[in-house]
Amino acid sequence: MNWIQEILFQPSVIQTVIVLAVVSAVGVYLGRLKIFGISLGVTFVFFAGIVASHFGIRVNKDMLAFAQNFGLIIFIYTLGLQVGPGFFSSFKKGGIKLNMLSLGNVFLGTLMALILCWTTHIPLSDMMGLLSGAVTNTPMLGAAQQALSQVEPDNARGVTDMALACAVTYPLGVVGVILAIIVLRSVFKVKSGKASPEENATKTYVAEFLVSNPAIFGKSIKETMHMTDRHFVISRVWRDGKVCIPTSDTLLQKGDQLLVVSVKADVEKATALFGEQENEDWNKEGIDWNAIDSQLISRRILVTRNRINGVKLGSLRLRNLYGINITRVNRAGIDLLASPDLHLQVGDKLTIVGEANSVNNVGKLLGDEAKRLNKPNLLAIFIGLAIGVFIGAIPLSLPGMSTPVKLGIAGGPIIVGILMGAFGPRIHLTTYTTESANLMMREFGLVTYLAGLGLDSGEHFFETVFRPEGLIWVAIGLALAIIPVLITGWISGRFFKIDYAHNVGMLCGSMANPMALNYANTTVAGDEPSVSYATVYPLSIFVRVIIAQLIFLIF
To answer: In CA terms, which of 30, 82, 142, 219 is 20 to 30 Å from 410?
Structure first.
């Protein structure tokens, strides 16, 4: 029986894999339990690792460090791939405001930590560890430890205590932000699965209009579209009791009835352009689009041909060549208007209206082979991981700082993931992964990272917590995790009118808290929190890394 003891308790590659798997399984199982209606999900893996380490489970340090860091890299990179397609459009719509608010949260938490340091007389090194844990930012901890080592080379104890302080407050940072999200959800009275008015305003909307504006009588659709700064797609035209698919050269006449696809926020502009809106609700469920006219069908077609990847929709000239109309494009669960400048990506779902033969021909051109999407595009994954880690390791010298700053293994991969997801198709690199595949990789990476982090920081966790200074650390960590988030979240919603979904995503990103983001995603119907998270995360984590080093160089 000695061989069993050697396998389970002697540090080795096999023992490390077994321990990580068992800790992850126990944590995932316990994460399904709800306490007062709240479930921490995979965050429980972190606590399972702490308990295992507390009771003497030891694993190979090198293996543990690799598993922990590689898990984080996979999670962050695939998160970037997921939100990349909608990242820059989101930035244009409100990303500057979100980034300014996230930086406000960063500076508010840092100022609060410095004030507590001066009033409680806790060493600056310990306080930076507490802040790093409260904001769940291990790159910040690493930068702070490196800066302390350069400023005070003999202060090895300070470096160790900083890591211990981070371990004590890290779970409080996870729980604290989740508690703050629960409070904000109650304050702004948000119901699960319900989209806010702001979200509805940006979703595609189908409406019917009667052409009664004399300014557009006799003008072609192309000429009419030049009269407004908004983009509309005219799906069908009813004239003299007959329905047809219009082209850009179709002339509009008085009394024409138009079926128009836009966003709800632009309905007022469309009414002013065309004349008046009809009362028919074309957005309700149960409408048989194919029955509107026996000669026309409406079908969703998948883009699966690699040669279409990155091509502009307008350059295909599908409307003129095939007499069809593309009313919308669904990408990663988000409906987009089918504008001529839209770059198509593998995995896009195009809603096409036209005669059956024409629609089928367009399907052959675009691919429409669902089985091809099931094949994983591993090339983009490995290229992105390599480039992301490399960029994260590049030292960036800033004026007035003797120590170069690095984006780290979290900052580099998410930036590359976003860029690959957004621009990969333009260089004909297929970055598409199915939603289930992306979710599987993200969850696997996050669970592995949390298991390794718990095993690494749990050895002295309880003995540190249950001593006078440890209890003070707990109180300070909880305050640093909750108070800045509540203040920033309330200001964002009340004064800057940021909707709940984007608000909580921004807060999770500014706190570098993927576990809280996981919880936030369960409280809304769409992926707005993830997009908002990725919008602010790169700048927030970069600023925190810089601040961590500046504080030791200044103070």
So the answer is: 30
